[in-house]
Target: Porin
Amino acid sequence: MKKSSILLGILPTILFAQQLHAQDTVSTADLLKRIEALEAEAKKPKEWDASIYGWVRIEYSFDSRQSAYSREYQLNLYPLDEKLDAKGNDINDTGASNFLAITSRVGIKFRGPDVWGAKATGNIEADFFGNTELNKSAAGTGSTGLLRLRHATATLTWPKTAVTFGQTWYPTFVPDVFPGVVNFNTGILFNPFGWAGQVKVTQKLTPELSFSVIAYKDREFQTANAAGASANSATFNSSMPTVHGQLQYKSKSITAGAGAEYQSLQPVIESGGLASDEKVNSEMFFGYFKYANEKIIAKLYGISGGNLHHLVMIGGFAGYENTNGIESYKPTKTSAFWVDLASAHPKIAPGLFFGYTKNSGTDAGFKNLYMRGISGNRILDEVWRASARIDFKQNKFSVSPEVEYTAAKWGDLNPEALAKNNLKNVGNLRGTVRVMYSF
Model:
């Protein structure tokens, strides 16, 4: 009887303990499920994401001779022709220098939810290279160091097709294949440069081969101004955008491509007091190649065409008188090529660059020339540039000295916009030291 009473007293305690243990087991399982759910949520791709990038960039440059330039002598183009004073001294045979940080930049890359089954990405980038030009011809007027839009794009990417809208590089500037020089001129005169508002459609033909079609309008960099024109009016007056096509092959170590474009611009809507619909029509062809491995980076680029002024190259177009009193236009022809060889070493990387460009003139009989590379009755025949550099890199900090020599051949202007008589070679030696800290 006594044993039965003890058992009856212990039984409720055992049952209560078992109930607590069961509850504890359920709580632990529930907790594990919650942890797994949180981990799964953390691993899910973010619908929206953004990252900031850019750099602080400071450059000191010294030139041995006066040059055609842009942006506070930051961007040198070609050495100026001989200019003799009354005593026979060359006025342009004098140096120049500057210390600038206006090429520092900042950008944002972002992505959001898929759109119509495509991955949606975007990019906005700016620097402080925007000016209302301050130079001798502007008599000291203008503003310097203004914030300037470089890129502003939105891209939709499907498995085999991508569409980009906005402002970005001219199609002839290939981000994977451009000179690795220290100078901010980035091989200008020999390699196209600039940005334009555009629509770009890229179709993958194979995993390595793609074809792109682009329609764009000039903006910051534009063609020369004809008589009676204003900045970029040739683009504004034209209902047709420039049309560009490009085929590109890209593998792990090789990038190669070729392309062509057609441009039709209307410089003015009024000529000689009369309505004008005259156009300057031009074609351009180009090709490029890059080979890169863990030791070396080799690049090659060539281009030939008419009215390449908007690509910051020599050339432009000519104006012809007509019996109806309205000026008509034809492009001048320009060709250029460059080669760049560099070490791929992550700490110390030397490099060499050589570029060459040639003015091939236009049809005889013009009255006016609207082009880059002319000064009065003197015109450029050819320009070449050679440079050597070393990049000293540590993490995202670099110090890069460079020596660059640019030579130009000037001559008297002949009826075909060529330099044929009284040829004169001039040269400019530029020394540059660049310091960059990227983020």
In short: The mean pLDDT is 91. The CA atoms of residues 319 and 329 lie 5 Å apart. The longest strand covers residues 419-438.
